[in-house]
Queue: 4 jobs
Job 1
Amino acid sequence: MIKGQNLTINGSGNYPGGSYDKVSIRGEGTIENAVDCSSYHIYGTSEALADVKAGSVKVVGETEVKGNMESGDMLVMGTLSIGGKAGLEKVKILGTLEVGERLFGETANIKGSISVGGDIEYEKFDLSGGFEIKGLLNAGTVNIGLRFGESTAEEIGGEKITVKRKTSLLPFVKDEGSLVVKVVEGDEVFLENTKADIVRGKLVKIGTGCQIGRVEYSTDFIQDKNSTVKMAEKI
């Protein structure tokens, strides 16, 4: 598709969608129809009432996309809310990401919080903060640093899964983060501050602060004395 003119919004107003080269909103703007563009940069507040497809996305402020969203490189330094599914190939979140349905791509680097109504699928998933995942988090490599509050997921799967507690950088936040999940399954699994029904893996290491119902392992199992595991079985 040939992308022609730019869409620049300075101030506030409602604008049609369509095919653009660059979309830039500085202020407050609403885009009423689907958008296909090379870059989608928001400095302020914006609302897209349909789908958004962009090569690169930068959000400094607050943006809501009512439909689905596709992007190549994405940087969010504020809040991004996507009502439908989100195909975000390379995403860096320094704030908050909310996705109504499925989230997928290649690499995710999240320093903040995310809420996803469906499954998450990435090659590499790094998160330092908190999350709520209504479905399965599946990635080749999963690295999670729990900084605050209670994070939740239905299942976590991958080749190498690491969940560690992180001390908050904020002096008034004293509580450590924790994870509540039904099933964790991977080749190598290391968990801290995690409450899980079932953990499966070749090599399973249960670190401090865990409450695990059942561990199934094929190679090796290590348990910290400050964690509880009701049952462990080599299979």
Job 2
Amino acid sequence: MSKNPDSQRFTVLLQRWHRGDGAALNDLSKQIQNELHRLALKLMHNESAGHTLQPTALVNEAYLNLLNCDVSYHNRVHFFNLAGRMMRRILVDHARARGSAKRGDGIKCITLEEQHLGAIENIDILALNDAMDALAEFDQPKAEMLELHFFAGLTTAEIAELYQVSAKTIERNTRLAKAWLRQTLQPA
């Protein structure tokens, strides 16, 4: 499996930053914020204009968490895997806070693109979170693969690189996991 040169450069910068090189963080910052903003826009593109959590706020909170996290990032994929998980937690925490404040009114819904889950739209983030947790109890690797795809925005090739398996294996596993989620999230 050949590695992307940009991914390799990102990994080197991550390692330098972890060793205390402030210049490496400066080099990474714009790249990280741009990628996080792209992910946030993707996650929140169908939200109403008055939604209390805006993509920039999601990016800022995730970015600060990543900077303050005492983790040695292995590579770009590992970094954005963690970023995706943080964004998921932030969205879920925000939805829970709004739901408890308004007794279910305004629970955050997200729309996963057709390629993600098929015809299911406007999925309550809390329902998706519960379904992902249930899938993780049943099959942790498949849940992680979907999380990497949905929340970290990684491609099939990047997920395959992380797991050191073929892209076909990732496609097959995510197809099964998406089918399981689709059935779990279908309205009764």
Job 3
Amino acid sequence: MKYKIIILCMCLFSCGPTYDCDASAEDLKRDECLLIVHKIPSNTDSRFNYKGIHPITKNECNCNSSRSDRWWVKYKEYIEIGDTIIKRKGELIFSIHKKDSILNFNFDCNGKIYK
């Protein structure tokens, strides 16, 4: 009886919903983040909530997106005050412009690189 329950549970979990990378990529294209970083969230904050100045309008802004948080937060360790973050609408490249270099990160889902 115990084995039947285990096998049933394994079947249920293996038949779960699959992640649709193409749909997710299309959804992520809608976000934009253009920001010169002035404030970095704490290390304990799991959200991507950077604040600063928009490089074109010079207005205060933030890069806080419930849609792209999980993707952008992967790169927190590379971002410092003074860096410029660029993620344009319609693209799947997240860039961090530093004083001496540019770091570009393409959206990656299940091993497939999106551009």
Job 4
Amino acid sequence: MTAHGTDEAQHELAHYIDHTLLKATAGSDDIRKLCREAREHRFFSVCVNSCWVPLAKEELQGSGVRVCTVVGFPLGAMSREAKVFEASTALSQGASEIDMVLNVGFLREGRYEEVQEEIRQIKEAIGDALLKVIIETCYLTDQEKVQACRLAVAAGADYVKTSTGFGTGGAVAEDLQLMLEAVEGKALVKASGGVRDAATARAYIALGVRRLGTSNGIEIVSGNAPDSGPRSGSY
């Protein structure tokens, strides 16, 4: 492939990537670095914890890179009111996309109306901003994954997303295919957790995934393999 062709291929992949840093130890300098990388590589967005939204918004001003934040993260077990407040506050501070964790315990207990209503209220609070619902596939049966996707669609979510990156597993092709079928084209699908190389990224995109959450975005677009070994809380 020519250098020009390589640049085009890298940009194509970059446009799918939410460049992510959600570690508890992240500080201001880490967020600024994340934003510089997002500008340089033209990632679709940065995904940060909500306390960093104002800084990310400032750092990305005029770049075209969006600010995405997480709500109810990483457990999804906060009160509905807390999640709605966190989402609306993040939006007012400069976020344009919200990745919320649904209440996994409620879902597994069959409290579907409550799960759906929480998603609906968050979507209502953020209006036209994109809402992605993290269903945390590693804790669910296939039937529960399908149910979670259907509830998210019924509540008006724009995306369903596999994982927080803090659970016991991340995105796998079988779950992504199941989710794509469950949403029936009424929502998009985001893969996150364990997306660490270009081959995996391209395979998921070929399945129909339209966003990738990863802390390995630079490795993906450059074609370099990430460091081996466990990565606590990494996308």
